[in-house]
Amino acid sequence: MSDTRIRVAAGWAAAYGTLALAWAVTGRGYPFGGNDPAPDTSALRALDPGVGAPVFAAVLLTAAVALLAVPHGAVLRSTVPHGTVSHGTVPGSMVPRGAVRFLVLGYLWLTAGALLLLVPDVRLLALAGYLPMLIAGLPFGWPDIDYGTVFTWTLGNQVLALIGGVLIARAALVRQRRTAGDCEDCGRSDGWTSPEAAARWGRVAVWIAAACPAAYAVSRLSWALGHPARRRRRAAPRAAQRRCRGRARRTGPVRAGRSGADIGARPAVG
Question: Whole-prediction pTM value?
Answer without folding.
Answer: 0.70
